[in-house]
Amino acid sequence: MGFFIRSLVTQQSKQVWRAYSTNASDITVKAMVYSSYGKPSEVLNWHTYPLAPLTDDTVHVRFLASPINPADVNQVQGAYPLKPAFEQLGDTKAAVGGNEGVAEVIATGKNVNSLKVGDQVVMARSGYGTWRTHAAGPVDDFQALPPSTNTSIIQKATLTVNPCTAYRMLKDFTPLQPGDYVIQNGGNSAVGQAVIQIAKAWGLKTVNVVRNRPEIDSLRQELLDLGATHVVTDEELGSFDMRSKMKGWFDGKPPLLGLNCVGGKSATEMARYLGHNGQYVTYGAMARAPLALPASMLIFKNISFHGFWMTRWADQNSAADRYKMFEDLIGLMDKGALSEPRWTKVDWSEDAMKHAVDAGIQGFAQGKQIVFPTSLA
Asked: Which of 20, 34, 80, 283 is catalytic?
């Protein structure tokens, strides 16, 4: 008979004490898993298995909210560089889908001192698998979030990919001072919107390139309301009029940082606006077109071109560095300077999850798609 751990759960602003047994059979995990790579709606399956017993050195968590990100879908397809190992989950060898989410500690072993029941945590490594109700693992699998006063569960669940990517790119490639310009494409993407808001909070100005569309005026206003300095379309980017406008905006101090998640011709055009010794960072390739680099940018302007992948940064830096970043970002969220992303709720069921993944592939999803695996509602 396993011993019982009490955990504090908040339900509709009322505190309730619950007991969790550490027998493997006392908590049944429900998860979306895959045992082979392929079309997500075909290889993803609903799976239940007993949660591993609590030991002196392990932790039990329950997942509060987990998004469905494009990289998660690519991972299931086998098209993502990071491929989690298939592990024995009850009677099935499989990987759990999902890379991002927020969980609550519900039990700790007697030797665990760095986490306590009630702490909210994110995964300490990519590929952990967040499309499940519960998980058990060593304390190093999880990283506690800093305390917050005004940060929502949605913001915490979506913290580790897009806001962190924006934060690192603004911070790591060139020293920026208040009043400096940053130019980026994909300004309406999740990372792009985080860049706009963080830059504004730090006193930076932004030129944001977006794809032209019928509703361009409403999109432009939406990004300006977030804190964008200027919003231009990819079609305007290479025009003589736009070059003249930007020259006036920059007033002799062109951007030294460019952020590219699109690729193709417009991404090359955007690089032309960087000043001497500028830094051009590519973190995506939504156009699925190559980035052509004129030799003059390298020879005469000495522009440096980099790639950035948040997973690699997390692997190469310490938990303390990551915590400091979380503190800064949650501080902005608490102050209302970094807003909750647009999102839609996905029911926690096999059919709904498969439908949501397909919607994400086809581009029909409206904002972030998020599941609540242990919702008490």
From this structure: 80
